[in-house]
Amino acid sequence: QGQLVESGGGLVQPGGSLRLSCTTSGSIFSIYVMGWYRQAPGKQRELVAVILRGGTTNYIDSVKGRFTISRDNAKNTVYLQMNSLKPEDTAVYYCNTNPAIWAWGQGTQVTVSS
Question: What are phi and psi of 73, to 5 degrees?
Fold first, then answer.
């Protein structure tokens, strides 16, 4: 298993959009179920979205219709398109397998604020 590297976070106003990316190397990426997780200050890390090997996706209720997870197995990359962002989406976002079996990356900070 290689290192997980998340990117694409930043400061955005409510209603805005961001696209997160997560890449890894050294693994047969395509065989894994991948997920995006987030951890807000003072809260436990939670699973936000998952994408199965065949492309089926699932989301927690609070992001359904706003977030879209996708993957490019040729690039060993998983994405999270986040639209209509809300202040409560503020967190550090991480990717990992689901269940999480790899070492966590550093994550990418998403801050939604006016």
Answer: -65, -30
Question: For 57-69, what is each residue's pLDDT tens digit?
Answer: 999 999 999 999 9
- Which phi and psi angles does 31 have, rounded to 5°? -85, -5
Contacts 24+ apart (CB under 8 A), 64-71: 67/36, 69/34, 69/35, 69/36, 71/34
Tell me, what's the pLDDT at 30?
A: 82
Q: Any idea what DSSP says for residue 104?
A: P
Pairing type for strands 10-12 and 67-72 reads unpaired
Amino acid at the residue 26: G
**Cα separations (Å) of 88 from 20, 42, 44, 108, 111?**
17, 13, 14, 16, 9
